[in-house]
Amino acid sequence: MTGAARPVLVVAEQLDASADMVVDQLNRRDVPVIRFDVATFPQQLTLTAAHAAGEAGWSGILDDGRRTARLEDVRAIYWRRPGRPLIADTVPEPYRAWAQNQADAALLNVLAALPGVVWINNPHADRVAAHKPQQLVAATRCGLTVPRSLITNDPAAARGFAKQIDAPLICKPVLGGRLPIEEGRALMVATHHVDPIDFDDSIRLTAHYFQETVEKDFEVRLVAVGDQVFCGTLHTTSAQAATDWRTDYEHIEYGTITVPDDIATAVRRFLAYYGIVFGSFDFAVTPQGEWVFFENNPAGTWAWVENRTGLPIAAAHADYLQGVTE
Is the model's pLDDT at 6 over the cut of 60? Predict the structure, then answer.
């Protein structure tokens, strides 16, 4: 099969604007695409993979009922927040959970074992890269400035940290995600300001992630794809948005900014540290012009950045997946 005909697998939920935009870019370039959600496996998606002695990788087919890809022809995989396999209701527990784990491991690990395939991002590396406490260490090693932070379930340690900082504090989740509160509804635990006066024994109930409040001129969502970096700016116009812009989209003004060379270099080092090629980085820029790293989401959203600013982020994804280099 010629290079032009080799397919890209786009593995994402059906409703994912970022995946839609990448597929559109690949279609414009006549690059074959098979898009599916892991949730369709094994009930709608069929995998047949074989490995023989002496072979360099797995061979076989992936069939979604409309299109088929030969595993040995796959050139790249865009792995973006897919669901988990859905097992038929006819399989009772505990076998259903067992079957789900089997399906999950089989599909992911067969794809991960394909030689010479380009990934955004390989989920094995992605999972490690998502750990926030380690990110602060990696960011520091790579030359980025980070806020002073404390993770604890000890009220006395929290009070001591507050006294040491002697400035406003925020509390944020160690692990992202939403809490299901009702059918079809979810609650996001947002970053919020805390008052040390209120610190009590309830801190012992779980781990708390405290950070010094960083004075912001504006915030940045920096999107890195391979060696390319794109920066959307967020100027917030409400106190709520200034604390966590995800809680008040109505009070954000969007723009762009050129990434300073030292920040771009540090971000590339950060990606290399984890063995990933994509990340959605959150920074604050202080009134003095200092860039302060908060966190990186290795599967973070970026469609809104392109839609608000016109930055060619989807095209950069397609370049990387297609194998186009500058």
Answer: yes
**What would the two tokens of residue 315 be?**
């095209």
186 shares a domain with 100: no
pLDDT over 60 (residue 126): yes
pTM of the full structure = 0.91
Task: Please report, for the domain that includes residue 256, its CATH number.
Answer: 3.30.470.20
How does DSSP classify residue 54?
T
Domain tally, the chain? 3
At residue 37, the 3 state secondary structure works out as: coil
Please give the structure tokens belonging to residue 316: 């950069």
User: With contact defined as beta carbons under 8 Å apart, do 232 and 252 qualify?
Assistant: no
The CA dihedral of 195, 197, 198, 202, to the nearest 10 degrees, is 110
Q: What gap in Å lies between CA 178 and CA 41, rounded to an integer?
A: 24
What amino acid occupies position 257? Answer: I
CA angle 262, 325, 127 (to 5 degrees): 65
Gyration radius of the chain over CA positions: 22
d(CA 314, CA 302): 9
> Would you tell me the crossing angle of helices 261-274 and 132-141 to the nearest 10 degrees?
130
Residues spanned by the domain of 166: 148-212
Same domain, 285 and 176: no
Cα–Cα dist 78/317, whole Å: 9
Q: Within a domain: residue 304?
A: yes
Does the pLDDT at position 273 exceed 90? Answer: yes
Neighbours of 309 (CB within 10 A): 18
Q: Which residues contact 169 (CB under 8 A, 6 or more apart)?
A: 161, 162, 193, 194, 196, 210, 211, 212, 213
57's tokens: 């990788």
pLDDT-derived band at 280 (thresholds 50, 70, 90) equals: very high
With DSSP H G I counted as helix, E B as strand and the rest as coil, what are the percentages for the chain, rounded to 5?
A: 35, 30, 35
Amino acid (1-letter code) at residue 143: G
Q: Are strands 169-172 and 208-212 parallel, antiparallel or unpaired?
A: antiparallel
Question: Within a domain: residue 143?
Answer: no
